[in-house]
Amino acid sequence: MIELRYFAWLRERIGTGRETVQTEARTVAELVAQLAAMDEGHAMAFADLKSLRVALDQELADFEAPLAGVREVAFFPPMTGG
Amino acid sequence: MRLSVQETAFDPGAEANAFTAAVQGAGAVVTFAGLVRDNGGALAAMEIEHYPGMTEKAIMAMMDQAMDRFRLADALVIHRHGRLAPGEVIMMVATASAHRADAFAAAEFLMDYLKSRAPFWKKEIGADGAAWVTAKDEDETALKRW
Question: Is the ipTM here above 0.85?
Answer without folding.
Answer: yes
